[in-house]
Amino acid sequence: GTAQQYKDVVWDSTNVTRISNLTSTQLIGILNAHGGKAKNFIPYAQGLITAEQKYSVNVFFLIGIEALESGWVTSHIAKSCNNLGGVRESKNHPSNGCGRNSGGGFAYFSSVNEFIDYHASMLHRSYLTPGGKYYEGTSPYDVVKHYCPGSSTWPVSVIKIGNGLFNHVKDVL
Predict the structure, then answer these.
(1) Burial tier of 14 (Cβ tally within 10 Å: 0-12, 13-18, 19+)
(2) Rounded CA gap, 140 and 119, in Å?
(3) Pairing of strands 3-6, 9-12
(4) Are the CB atoms for 73 and 37 separated by under 8 Å?
(5) Which of 78, 76, 75, 98 has its CA nearest to residue 88?
(6) Is residue 1 scored above 60 in pLDDT?
(7) How is residue 106 annotated by DSSP?
(8) Which helix (H) or strand (E) is 71 found in, with range?
(9) Structure confidence at residue 103 as a pLDDT band (50, 70, 90)
(10) Mean pLDDT for all residues in the chain
(11) Would you state the pLDDT for residue 146?
């Protein structure tokens, strides 16, 4: 993965802490241009951009994870629990019947935007900041070591989704 830039928009799959510089309106244009299930993220464009700016987690990376893990916001957990990333239940986010697998129960969020803010915060704090509990570096290949251990396809898929979205930047700017 190499850094890609068009005008001031950035997607660097080797350093996902570099923000995209997109506005929510531009992101909506990119999601529309990509088409298909990517349009499921349109209602959350402002929340995604706000989270990117607040936590320095690139929006192409954030959507890449959330699209992969939620089937582009179509999974049962995404629709019934507003959980787009398989986040585990906690004291602050109990399961509320969101189901479980061998790793434990899935967290319930009151809205998708609440999930997006929580997810970006958790990625920033635990995975993308030196000294963070699971910090190994700033690429999806570094994040996967603790986020989705044992998966060789997760980083490739997340990067592919990010690249696919970035390819539409020129259609919008």
Answers:
(1) middle
(2) 15
(3) antiparallel
(4) yes
(5) 98
(6) no
(7) B
(8) none
(9) confident
(10) 96
(11) 96
Q: Which two tokens stand for residue 116?
A: 């997006």
The residue behind tokens 């963070």 is 132
Distances (CA, A) of 120 to 46, 54, 76, 168, 169: 14, 9, 21, 23, 22
| Count of CA atoms in the C-beta half-sphere (13 A) of 90 | 9
Distant-in-sequence contacts of 46-51, Cβ < 8 A, 24+ apart = 47/112, 47/113, 47/116, 47/117, 48/24, 48/116, 49/22, 49/23, 49/24, 50/117, 51/116, 51/117, 51/119, 51/120, 51/121
pLDDT at 101 over 90: no
Number of Cβ within 10 Å of residue 161's Cβ equals 21
Give which of 4, 40, 6, 41 is closest to 24, Cα–Cα.
41
Q: What angle do CA 144, 122, 18 make, to 5 degrees?
A: 70
